[in-house]
Amino acid sequence: MPELKIGPVCIPHGLCLAPLAGVSDRTFRRMARLNGAEYTVSEMVSAKALCYEQNCRRPAAQARSRTAPLAAVMREEYPMAVQLFGAEPEFVARAAALLESGEYLGCRGEIPPAAIDINMGCPMAKIVNNGEGSALMKDPPRAEAIVRAVRAAVSLPVTVKIRAGWDAEHINAVEFARRMEAAGADAICVHGRTRAQMYAPGADWEIIRRVRQAVSVPVIGNGDIFCADDALRMLRQTGCQGVMVARGAQGNPWIFEEIRCAMEGLPYTPPTLSQRLETAMEHARGMVREKGERVGMSEARRHMAWYVHGVRGAAAARGRLMQVSTLEELAGIFAELGQLNCSEQ
Ligand SMILES: Cc1cc2nc3c(=O)[nH]c(=O)nc-3n(C[C@H](O)[C@H](O)[C@H](O)COP(=O)(O)O)c2cc1C
C-alpha cells in the first residue's frame, strides 16, 4: 500500500483526482470524494488574473470575477490543492500568498487550500505561448525561480505537476524534478507524456519510475489510469507513492473506490445502471445548484454522456443528452434508458 504525504497532509491510499480545466469543478470533485478520492486539485487558475482581480476594488468587477470561484476551497473539500499557472515568479508567489491568507477577492469564508500546485504541464498553445504550463519545462531556471518564490511566500506545501518533457528530443523530467525538489517542492506529480504528445494514448510510466528514483519527495504518477488494474500496475512499475486519475474519473467517480478495494484485496462491486443514473442525476443537480440551471445544465451535458457511455441505448440518446436543458428533461431521458435496459435484460 503506498503512503503519500504532502507536507503535513496524509493521503492514506495516495488516491488523487487530477486537475481538469472545464471539468473538475466543485461538483465533479465532490462526486469523486464521495466515491473514494482522497485528494483533489482545482482546475488551473491564472496567477496573474487572481492578482489583477484582487487589485480591482469595483464591486461590479468583483461580482464578475471568474477566477476567484475557481480557486475557492470549501471546508468539506479539505484536503484540496489549488493549481496556479503563470510564468512570472512574483505573480505566482503573490497569488499563492493570497490563497494562503484566504483574503482573495470573492472569498466567502472558504478555507485556504491544503497545498499550492504549480502547473508545468499544460500543452495548450495559448498557455505555452506565454511561457506558462509545459513551456516551463523548456526553461528550468524560470520554473525553479517560480518554485523558490512560492516556497518563500507561503508556508503551505508546494507541489509541481510536470510532463516527461517538451518533446521526444527533450525528455528532461528527471533533472527537472531534481531541480524542483532543490527549489523547495514538497511533491512532484509526473504525467508520463511530452507536451508534443498532448493526450495521445500510451503514457510512458518508465519516466515516472526514473523520477521516483531521482528525488526524495513523494512522486505522484499520472497518465492512462482507467481502472484499478492500471493503478496497481503503475504503483508496481514505478514505485510512486500516489496515483492521479484524470480522464478515467469522467463519468466514473467510482474508479477511486475500485482502486482502493484492489489495493486492500477486497471485492469491488461496480455500480448498477440505476446507481449510475442516480449518481449522474445528483451530479447534474449539483451543477445546477452551483451554477444555475442555464449554465449548469449546459456544462452538465458532457458529464451525462460520460456517465452513460457504453450503456445500451445511450448512443441513440446522445443527441438528446447533448441538448438537454432542464433537470426534468434529463430525468425523462434517464427513465427511458433505465426502462430500455430493464426490459431487454
Ligand atoms: C480536459 C482536460 C483538462 C485538463 N486540465 C488540466 C489542468 O487544468 N491542469 C493540469 O495540470 N492538467 C490538466 N489536464 C491534464 C490532466 O490532469 C492529466 O495530466 C492528463 O489528462 C493525463 O491523465 P489521464 O491519462 O488520467 O487523463 C487536463 C486534461 C484534460 C483532458
What is the fold's blueprint, element by element?
Blueprint: E1 4-6, E2 9-11, E3 15-17, H1 26-34, E4 40-41, E5 45-46, H2 47-55, H3 59-64, H4 67-71, E6 80-85, H5 89-101, E7 115-120, H6 125-128, H7 140-153, E8 158-165, H8 173-183, E9 187-194, H9 205-214, E10 219-222, H10 228-238, E11 242-245, H11 255-264, H12 273-291, H13 293-307, H14 314-321, H15 327-343
Parallel strand pairs: 3-11, 4-6, 5-6, 6-7, 7-8, 8-9, 9-10, 10-11
Antiparallel strand pairs: 1-2
Helix pairs in contact: 1-12, 2-5, 5-7, 7-8, 8-9, 10-11, 12-13, 12-15
The chain binds flavin mononucleotide (FMN).
Flavin mononucleotide binds next to loops.
Describe this structure in words.
This protein is 47% helix and 14% strand. It is an alpha/beta fold. The protein has 2 domains: 4-264, TIM Barrel (Alpha-Beta Barrel); 273-343. The strands form 2 sheets. Strands 3, 4, 5, 6, 7, 8, 9, 10 and 11 form a 9-stranded parallel sheet that branches. A two-stranded antiparallel ribbon has the order 1-2. Helix 2 (47-55) crosses helix 5, helix 5 (89-101) runs parallel beside helix 7 (140-153) and helix 12 packs antiparallel against helix 13 (293-307). The mean pLDDT is 94.
Predict the CATH topology of the largest domain.
TIM Barrel
Cα(first) to Cα(last) distance is 39 Å
SS content category: alpha/beta
Q: Element order, helices and strands?
A: EEEHEEHHHEHEHHEHEHEHEHHHHH
Number of helices: 15
The structural domain count equals: 2
- Overall pLDDT score: 94
Hetero groups bound?
flavin mononucleotide
At CATH's second level, what is the architecture of the largest domain? Alpha-Beta Barrel
Largest sheet: 9 strands, parallel
How large is the radius of gyration? 20 Å
Q: Please, what is the CATH homologous superfamily of the largest domain?
A: Aldolase class I
